[in-house]
Amino acid sequence: MSLLGALALASGTNAHTILEIGRQRPILRNAKRANRALDSALDKRVDELRPGATLNYDVFWNKPSKEAGPLENFNTVRGNQIGYAGSTPPGVNPAISINPNADRVYLAHEMGHLASQKTDIGHLVASLRANPKLKNALLGAMVTVPGVAAALEAGDDDMDTSLAMATLASAPTLVDEMLASKNGLAIMDTAGMRASLGQRGKLATGLLSYLAAPLIAGAAGNIVGNQFDADPSGL
Question: Is residue 174 within 8 Å of residue 129, measured between CB atoms?
Fold first, then answer.
């Protein structure tokens, strides 16, 4: 994938997610309407993941202004996406912030984050993702490691290695999001609200927005690395 292609992927998927979580008017299958059933299903999911465990959490309803114009609303949500579909990391009082107008699949996804933190691997991954020092180290690796790998490999056929190494650097975020979606879908099943193909697509689109960052880093690192890959005999 080219750098321009990765940038297009990032902007496209992120814009779609922003529009979805920033709805100014509720859709039929909205988060507020499904809250009680999903909350009950969340309790059952937590008990399945760690028998005997309980989860007490707060829900903050963050509704966009109906008076704001489309562009103003888009920019508002873009600047605070977590406020319209977000959840707390380990170590703080569990809470979810959600737009009540948004599709209930986003609420289930955020519940999935809290549920996955009840498992050892889920708690570890979420903790690594929330660690600022580790996050900075991973971001640094995304830029330098793919570039080094590209420089060491001959030719221009090393894009797959660059992308793989950049994705690995972002593993905590990607795994955390995948676990949240897995548990969120299970919560919806238990609540008798099995996710439709369209709702699963919304979660997939959200995951792609996280995957776009390492794709961009890998593509950029590959381009930079290959600047040092010239055949000395041709100089």
Answer: no
pTM, to two decimals: 0.73
To 5 degrees, how large is the angle CA 182–CA 184–CA 188?
Answer: 120
Tell me the residue type at 42: L
Environment class of residue 9 by beta-carbon count within 10 Å: exposed (0-12), middle (13-18) or buried (19+)?
A: middle
- Looking at the chain, how many residues does it have? 235
One DSSP character per residue, 116-177 reads: HTTSHHHHHHHHHHH-HHHHHHHHHHHHHHHHHHHHHS-TT--HHHHHHHHHHHTHHHHHHH
Distance CA 179, CA 186 (A): 11
What residues contact 86, with CB distance under 8 A and at least 6 apart? 96, 97, 98, 110
Question: Where are any strands of DSSP class E within the chain?
Answer: 58-61, 85-87, 95-98
Tokens describing residue 97: 């912030």
Residue pair 144/203 in contact by the 8 Å Cβ criterion: no
Q: pLDDT digits over 80-104, tens only?
A: 999 999 999 999 999 999 999 999 9
Q: Is 126 exposed, middle or buried (0-12, 13-18, 19+ CB in 10 A)?
A: buried
Query: Which two structure tokens, joined as six digits, stand for 124?
Result: 């570890």
